[in-house]
Amino acid sequence: MEFLFAGIGLVILLLAGDLLVRGAVNSSLRLGLPALIVSLTIVAFGTSAPELLISIEAIDDNAAGLALGNVVGSNTANILLVLGVPALVSTLHTSECDTRKSYVTMLLASVIFVAIAFIGPITWVHGIVLLSILALILGDQARQALAHRRTLRAMEEDLEGVDPDMPWWKIGVFLLLGLIGLPLGADIFVDSSLVIAQRFGVSDSVIGLTLVALGTSLPELATTVMAAIRRQADVALGNVIGSNMFNLLGIIGVASFFGDIPVDTSFLTFDFWVMLGASILIAPFVFSNTRNMTRRWGAALCAAYLGYIWMVIH
Length: 314
Fold this sequence. Notes:
Elements: H1 2-30, H2 35-47, H3 49-60, H4 64-80, H5 84-89, H6 100-119, H7 124-147, H8 149-160, H9 168-200, H10 204-216, H11 218-229, H12 233-255, H13 265-281, H14 283-287, H15 295-313
């Protein structure tokens, strides 16, 4: 039953997050906010809302290990599984896209995050540092987008394509359901996950690294599979890189204001290094103009993820 309730909580979280993003985007555009600002703030934070609510709920339930495990496990899953599965479905033509700058930024963010974690525990002071770095990254992205008018126009068309004729009453319903559903889903999901952890005699960190991380990575997985089928490797890579940066800087940054986040020794000796190693593993595909992520590489990444999960559980 606990797995069923966890599944129900996750579905509520994902649906509520989607409704909140759609309602917020359309209301912001109707109020005259620039599409660029909406994209870099509301959409980015909105799509990370399920992970954020889970982390906050876990801290409130004195299970901070689940919050940290969720972020670290999601980042590892994003690289190994969320890129590996689409590569198995259809070769990711990474040689055709340029994500070098964002990739290097993600690596630097990861290193800074690990360094802060070694100081541990992660407090609100560290949270301010992480959020400040995120603000600098968003500001740089805004500057770049404004310098390329075609990118800005495409972004506006993309956002307004959500539903430019959505009536205000419908926007209100989406916002209300999203705001109610997110905390409800997070509460159900976290409580069920903790019961599962107790039943199987594992720590909340292990549940965060496995069950919670895998569940919250499903939207990214669906996005990258579709991007692979459409030969949009830049979308697949960009989705993973952006998600990983937001997980480390945004989610942990905000969650730290709700309580200190202690860092278990297992993170310092194993999980952080797997996360960093997985990130470095895709460097050849980011920097090469000839190398694509083939099915063979997809199988290798998926196998590496399964091996990681086996080691975490055992």
